[in-house]
Amino acid sequence: MSIKTEAIGKEWPATTYEIGREKIGEYARVIGLDNPVHFDRESARAAGYRDVVAPPMFCVTYSAPALGPAMFDPEVGMNFAAMVHGGQEFEWGEPACSGDEITTSAKCLEIFEKDGKGFYVFETRSVNQNGDEVVKGTWTNIVRGV
Amino acid sequence: MADLNAGDAIPGLSVTPDKYLPHRYAGASGDFNPIHIDPEFAKAVGLPNTILHGLYMMGLVARSATDLAGGDPKALKKLSVQFRGMGAPETEIVVSGTVKSVDGDTVVIDTVAAQGENQTIRNAEAEIQL
After folding, report:
1. 3-state secondary structure of A49
2. Cβ-defined contact of A27 to B81 (cutoff 8 Å)
3. pLDDT for B79-98, tens place per residue?
4. Is A55–B55 a contact, with Cβ atoms under 8 angstroms apart?
5. ipTM (interface pTM)
C-alpha cells in the first residue's frame, strides 16, 4: 500500500499559550524536580531568571496544542489505532518563564514509508512575546501496517 | 560541579511512579489520551493495562541531565530520544547513562530509561552546557 504524502510542507495556524506560575510548579512536582526556581519567584530571580522558570520538558504543555490540528488533519491521514510516538527531539533557546506568552506553529516535515511502517514527522517552533525562540520540537509518529 | 569525562557513568535516577501518576501527568501536560488513564480503554485497544506517557519518561531523562548541572533548567540545550518499550505505572524506572563527549563546557550524554529489562527510552542523547 502507498502512503499519502501531499501534506509534506503543510503548516497549521499558530496557537498561543500564557505560562502560569502554578502550572510550572504542578509540572515540576509531577516530574520530581525540587529546584526552587520552578516554584518561587525570588529564587528564580536570584538565579538570573525573569520569573519562575519552566523545566525544559514543560515545553510539551505549551507546544502540543499547536500539534493537535496537524495530527488530526485528514490530509495527513494518520491511522491513530496503529500509531505510536516513535521519537522526539527538542532544542531549547531562551528560557520560558511565568508570564511569557508563547506562540507555537506546526509544520509537517516528512511523511515516508519504511519497512511497512509510515513515519510522520512534524516540527513545532515556539517563540516568546519578544520573538525569541524558546524551543524547536521534532515529533516522530510511527504507524504500523500502512 | 562534577568533573565529567567521556565514558563516565552519570548518577542517573530511579523513580517508581504510583498508580495515579499518569493522571497527574495528564493534568500537568494536557495529554488526556485514555490509554494512560483508563484501564478499560487501554485493555480494549490491546494493551495489558494503562501505560505511562512517553513524554513523562522523557521528562525524567531531562531531569537526570539537568541534575548534572545542579538542577539548572537552562543547562539543557538539546534532547532527542527514541521511544521503544511501553512503561507501566507502579514499576521502578531507572534512568542511567554515560558521558559521550566533553568539549569545553558542552557535555553530551547517552541515556536509557528502563523498567527491568524493558528499555522504554533508548538512544537518548542530551546536550548540556555546564
Report:
1. coil
2. no
3. 999 999 899 999 999 999 99
4. no
5. 0.96
